[in-house]
Amino acid sequence: MLDFVILSCHVWMVILHFRLGMMFLPIRDKNLAYQQLGTVFMFASGFLHLFYAISIVFYWLDMPIYNLLFSLAAAWLVAFFPPMVVPVLISTLTTPPENKTVITHFLHWLSGHKDQLTLALIPISVLIILFSIPSVFPLTEWNPQQTYGVLLKYTLGLISIWILMLLSGMSIDPSSVFRGVEKQITIFLLFILFLFSIYALSTFFTYPEIDPNKPLIHHKLMNENRSWAFMPILSTLGAAVLTCWIAFRFEYLDIVVNRIVRFCSALLSVVGFYFLLPFIENLSSNVYLSAVMLYLLFVAALYHWIMEWVARFWCPPTTELASIHEKLPEILATCYEKDQAIQATEKFISDLFRASVAINKALPADIYDSGRSGTICIESSPVVYLSLGYIRGWMPWLSEAQHWARSVALYLQTHLRLIESMDTIRKKENKAETMAKLASRAELDSLRAQIRPHFLFNTLNTIHSYIEEDPRQAERTIELLADLMRESLVSSGQDLVPVSQEISFSKTYLEIEKVRHGDRLNFNISIEKGCEHLLVPHFCIQPLVENAIKHGLDVQMKAITIDIAIERNDNTLTLSICDSGPGLDANKKNTAKGFGIALSNIRERLARQYGPEASLIIGTASIGGVASVITIPTSEVSK
Questions:
Q1: How large is the C-alpha radius of gyration of the chain?
Q2: Confidence category of residue 251, pLDDT binned at 50, 70, 90
Q3: Global pTM?
């Protein structure tokens, strides 16, 4: 049973070290030299345990030669571990003591030449292998204890250099990758020394399980395999944990511990069944199968409970973590500003993990520890940077917790990106609205510019004709023209004006035209009571009045009457301009040209100001001419 446990441990160590070796590959940007060392060490440890596992299998198959070959391969591979590990340990102590001596000068120089020390130790490892060859062959007479003894002395001698450096007062540079792990390195080395001591004591004992039918080499291998077996398991496991600790701090500690718990649970379940088997093997087949089934159900339930408890140790329960996908999107949906979304996310993470959290800003120095607190950065735009304090005030942010925190950061980043998009769309809409207003004003000014020249020309000709014949009428016309220009300048730049102001402008225009046409032009203006303060688009009546004069009076010699009526009907305001001219049928050829400029401009302004709620309809008036009817929503002058 002990051999099975040893084999299982070696197989699990093979898987663990290869997986950890793959974890070191993505950290090239942190520390290239340390990444290379971690990768080589993990894969070398994996092959070491693979050789041990294969040697145990050959031992079971009673093939001692192959067993010795793989044991020898493992021993020679162990010889290269000191050149990989010890120079790195020595290079951690780079800060010299205050009182320097010749020895401390040498040790300080040694700590700064890690690569040269590694290159010097590799030939020593090769020489140890070469000197061990005479004692190895023939394999049947090889004493593994002698080879391992040399390797132990070699390793202990190198470790003693690090201990001497530590005792001399040298310390770890605070800016190095090894900052904050002085105690861990010391504990690990003391642990290795303890293991070596246990192994040294175990070599004085032998096991009584001697089968006279098997050669002596078989029992030598059995004793050596059992006494040495746990040395590489515990030492490489401790070194792997320390290496991961230095590289990732606490980030992946939960993954390593979870795998250890899974392996121990599986191993204990097999050991438990091994001890249960003698009690049930003599039972009937039905009872035997029932006992096995109950045992498997018990093991499955116990395993589930253990893993659930371990998972809760690292971070909140899964039921609470599920709220990240359920509640957080609902919370963010109510946030329309970036600062509001960030504050809501900070509170959500703090309440969920019971930890201090700062997003896109730093935590206070007494809360945040870069070595053991969490830091998450989502670099795509917009950048989301999470500074995370201890979970529950003491638990570091490990891989599982960081995975969930990263999900929260991605939700926040997506929402911030949505807010930015909405802000961009809103700015574009505001810009488009501003441009539309400017365009509307420009069109209005353009229409004014198109009307004023010929209107002023005709008015000035009328004034000129009255100067000699009727000076008073000329003076009156000049006053009317001045009032018209004054009203036009006062209302310049306004999109909406009161009805009273628009009617006053149009009435002044009609009076000037009446001076020109005399009795041939008559007009009536009626305003429903209460409509004087309602707002209408500026310059919307005068162009229609001008069209009525142009197409109703200028094309014939008969007199016409223009009726202007302002009426309110519930929530709408109606502006009617009707004339008694020849009507639409008599002006079909001129309708598109004459009406086109003014009508298209008014319709565009109505659509831009009121949307589909406003309209301009051209039809036949009840008095025989053309009726132009504008319908708009009512709006009053703000007080």
A1: 48
A2: low
A3: 0.51
